[in-house]
Amino acid sequence: MSIESTQAPLQLTIATRESRLALWQAEHVKALLEAQGHSVTLLGMTTQGDQILDRSLSKVGGKGLFVKELEVALEEGRADIAVHSLKDVPMDLPAGFELACVMEREDPRDAFVSPRYESLSAIPHGGVVGTSSLRRTVLLRAARPDLRIEPLRGNLDTRLRKLDEGQYDGIVLAAAGLKRLELEQRIRHVMEPQQMLPAAGQGALGIEIRSGRPELVAALQPLVHMPTWLRVSAERAVSRAMGGSCSMPLAAYATLQGDLLQIDAAWGDDQAAGAVSLVRATASAPVATLAEATALGEQVARELIAQGARPATAAH
């Protein structure tokens, strides 16, 4: 990726989680910024989300636990930017923070990983599949109500180790993380969106800054991928309108052909016993701005609610 910039070089510090995937993402951004002539160092941090591994995120405060410590580092001036997996970023940032850049998306799909079975459909009746995502749980239960869906927490390497120890017949992970860490050979089957609709922002990286730093916005501008930003803006708007975080059994995925943006969303009742019936909605329209993409996502959320999807009473 060739990047040109006429801006004066900056001394930048990136706040990042210390998982292998988070460090890969931070190093990726570091290399792109250094290609512009900036000097970049990393500030590795452990977040609450990394430390609490015995409970599902939906029970302990949501995915915002992965970004809070990084935001404190920005607020205190110990770091200038924070690199996040966009699906971990709360739909509404705290006052004084902004999303300054969304980068080009990696594969947004889910991946089925198993040492024994080539696909989800090959797992026998009563098999065990691991995930701690409520979205994946309801989609899996809708597709295979005969399976046992068991919690799976930890970073990518930890999840793969638990699978290899025989705790699960298969697990579902984001394809993007496996590809970024050159673990693509672990993927038995990439699950198409029609089968497993992705999470809002899945596969995309977002860069957060403190508001009022125009020099950072300018430095990050060459890294912006507007087609991705339009897509994830629509997806995140669905989730925001539903009061969503990781405690919401919601999927939202947008595609862009020319200027035509299509957004598909699905909601399932994670409290229902047995098979889950999904509520689905879709909409498409030409978009040129983030505001137009956001409005389309809000339209889809209204359609979900009209069909019986229940918004969260409070966003985490």
Could you explain how this protein is built, in words?
- 31% of the residues lie in helices and 24% in strands.
- It is built from ten helices and 13 strands.
- The strands form three sheets. A five-stranded mixed beta sheet has the order 2-1-3-10-4, sandwiched between helices.
Instruction: Give unreliable regions as ranges.
Output: 49-63
The main β sheet shows up as: 5 strands, mixed
Structural class: alpha/beta
Report the count of strand segments.
13
Overall, the morphology is: globular
The run of helices and strands is: EHEHHHEEEEHEHEHEEHHEEEH
Strand order of the largest sheet: 2-1-3-10-4
Helix content: 25-40%
Radius of gyration: 19 Å
**Quaternary class:** single chain
Name the beta content range. Answer: 15-25%
Alpha plus pi helix count: 10
What number is the mean pLDDT? 89
Beginning-to-end CA distance, first to last residue: 36 Å
